[in-house]
Structure formats: C-alpha cells, structure tokens
Amino acid sequence: MSKKVVIVGGGAAGFFAAINIAENRPDFEVIIIEKSDQVLQKVKISGGGRCNITNACFEPKELIQFYPRGGKELLGPFHQFMTGDTMEWFESRGIPLKIEEDNRVFPASNSSQTIVDFFVETTQKLGVKVLTQHRVATVLKSENQFEVITSKGNFLADDLLMATGSNNRIYQVVSSLGHNVIHTVPSLFTFEINDNRLKPIPGISVPNASVQIKNNDFSINGPLLITHWGMSGPAILKLSAFAARYLAEANYYFDLEVNWLSKPEDSVISDLKEFKLAHPKKTMISKSPFADIPNRLWEQICLFCKIEASNIWADGDKNQLQQLTNELTKATFKIVGKSTFKEEFVMAGGVDLKEINFKKMESKIHPHLYFAGEILNIDAVTGGFNFQNAWTTAYIAALSIIEN
Q1: Any bridge partners for residue 150, and if so which?
Q2: C or N: which end of the chain has fewer Cβ atoms within 10 Å?
Q3: Angle at CA 174, nearest 5°, toward 169 and 176?
C-alpha cells in the first residue's frame, strides 16, 4: 500500500526531503504544505541572491564548530550526509557549483533562482504536490496516522515531516503534540553603536580584530566592519550567534571590548616604541604604524587619545604610548541595540534536541513524526552552514521515511 507523506514547510529542507523521497519511492504520495503564496523565499534571498548552498569544510568535527547550538547533535548526521555529499547531490543533478576563496559554495550561475527553479521543476516532474496558502491550524494524532488540519482542507499522513524553520504557529502545533520548544531569540545580527570614534569612518574594516563581551567569556576573532550604525562583519556576526541568548537577556545593551589587532598589550606597546625610534620626526597622526589598521581608523584612535596633528613621534611620551596601546587592544564601546543582518534572518531556539533521534531525525515521542532544518534548536554562523543543517537533516528524515 502506498504511503502518504506530508511535509509542512515549503523551504529548503522541505523540498530537499520531498525530492529524495519521490526519487526513491515514486509510489509514495508526497505533499508539501506551505502557508504563504510562494515557496523557497529564503533560498531566493540567501547569499545576497546567490544562494550560499554549503561550505567547503569537509571534516565533521571541524564543521560542528560553526554551530552555536546543535553542533554536538549534528556530528553523527554529518558522518551520514556531509558537505561533499551536498555538492555531489546538486552537481549530479545538473547544477554546477563553485567554491569561493572563503570556502563558501555557490551555484556556478551566481543566482539563487537556479536552485529555486530546480526544486520547483523537479518536484513537478516527480509528481510531488506543492500546496501554497495552506496555513496549518493543528495536527491530530490517531493510532497510525496524523491528520494535518489546514486553512484549505485536511490531509492524512502516514509520515509527517515538520520542516518550517522558525514559526511560532507551528511551534504551538508541535507543543500540542507533546514536544518541548526552546523559546526563540534572534541570532546573526550586527551591533548598533552611537560613538564619535566610529561616526566619521563607516566602511572601514580590519582583517583580524578580537571582540569580547566585557566581563564575559564570549570572545571571537575575525574581520570587523565599521558601519553607519555601528559594527558588523564576520567577527560581530559570529559573536552575536554564540552569545545570542545572553545578549537577548541583556536586551542588547552591553559593553563590547575590541582589540583591533588581536595582539597582546605588551606586543603592541613594543611595536609602538620601535616605530617611534624608527620615525621620530613623522607626525603621529598622519600614518598608521600597523598594516592592519587603516589610516582613517588610526586617526580616530589618535584623536581619542588627544594627540594633536602637530605632534611628532619623538614627542610621544610614555603616557601617550600607553593610551594608544589601550585603545588598540581594549577599546570599549557601548552597544545600544541590534540590527538584522541583511534579509537572512536566523533564530536560536526551536524543538528540543533531546526529544529527537538524530539517527533518523524522528521524534522520540511519536513514531513517524520527523523534523528537519531550522525548526529544530539548531543554528549556525554565516557561510552556508544553516543550509547544510537543512540538507543533512532533510536527507536523513527522507531516508528514514523511505525505509520505515
């Protein structure tokens, strides 16, 4: 007898699972239910419209380090379906990929529409029904089936896959089925700062700053970008992800300590003394002594330390060198809020991972109920890692549905 499979969520995980099921079991009836009038919207805007499919990190133990939540649980699944498997999956279906210098993987077309069109056309060819504008009201569990109650009709499912991403209505449905949902908070955001040191220099970046939440253990190294509203860049985004819950509790008001060079204080003051000896007649403010500190940022640091335009290095006294060192290695900025990173909204929180069998992506409470993607309490930093979670968990769920 043919199985009826219902997938709630018309996003990356839902389509990926549907295709894997339908390719292997054409006798199964597969339905995707989506609440909005369009599918795959997050895929379309991801990666600046280019779709950052995955990351060219090929070691599971290394890959899980990019997941503030869920990394430990994903270690086993990544051994089953990894980044290389994702790349092979797309390329074997006629979508050439490319790896960029920072290891992000994109379609060679440089367009997310390539992925969207592929998913839509492939599901059509395979006979998967995609139903839009079907808002799920609740799910009822009988002895052997699930009944999905939607705004446009009810659907019986032998196997039910929840793949919606962060969705409060679906979290209520999941809770009604007995699952615990960890409340969601934003992840991956930039910091709002109102500081005269930064206002004149938006667009300036440094390649390897160290950023730390003051009086806390959260610390990240990486590129940092000064923006019109404060700070962004990989270091800030990664810090926001790993400290997402702490920052939510602080209502996004906290002190951030920045080491612009990611170097210890004694090393920096030693460098300044050497530069002073080598260039005694140069004006202090005119040129940065560090290759990684742009001249305009250096000028703001000097002005903050009350160094005048006429001061030369020979006149730089012990106190001035110490002030410069402090500002280079432990500058403190007051964060007064957050801004969403582009349109790629990521949430921390979701279905409690303790209640999921990660060998099958199946509920430990209800057999034949599966979860994939961001509906789970799993999230990652930027670089293709959130999509990899979607592909891996959807693939394993699909395999389990095929085999169960």
Answers
A1: 136, 153
A2: N
A3: 95
Query: In whole angstroms, what is the distance from residue 322 CA to residue 313 CA?
Result: 14
Please report where in the chains the tokens 């789970």 appear, as a residue.
376
Residue with tokens 């290394």, as numbered in its chain: 62
Compute mean pLDDT per 10 residues along the chain, 404 residues long, and list them: 92 98 98 97 93 98 98 98 98 98 97 98 98 98 94 97 94 98 95 97 98 94 97 96 97 98 98 97 96 98 96 95 98 94 77 98 98 97 96 98 94
- What are the Cα distances from residue 268, in Å, to 59, 173, 289, 357, 365? 35, 56, 10, 50, 57
Q: Which residues are registered as beta bridge partners of 138?
A: 149
- Give the torsion sign (CA, 216, 218, 224, 229): negative
Residues with Cβ within 8 Å of 58's Cβ and at least 6 positions away in sequence, in order, are: 82, 83, 84
Q: Residue 87: which H helix or E strand, with range? A: helix 83-91
Roughly how many angstroms between the first and final C-alpha of the chain, as a whole number? Answer: 13
CB atoms within 10 A of CB 10: 28
H helices present in 134-281, as ranges? 168-176, 234-242, 244-249, 265-278
pLDDT of residue 133: 98
What are the Cα distances from residue 275, in Å, to 268, 313, 327?
11, 8, 17
Q: Among all chains, which residue has been given the structure tokens 């290095």?
A: 313
Helix pair angle (385-403, 12-24), 10° resolution: 30
Query: Which DSSP state fits 1?
Result: -
Residue 246, classed as helix, strand or coil, is helix
Q: How far apart are alpha carbons 185 and 344 in whole angstroms?
A: 14
User: CA-CA-CA-CA torsion for 87, 359, 241, 176, nearest 10 degrees?
Assistant: 120
Domains and CATH numbers, the chain: 4-186+343-403 (3.50.50.60), 189-340 (no CATH)
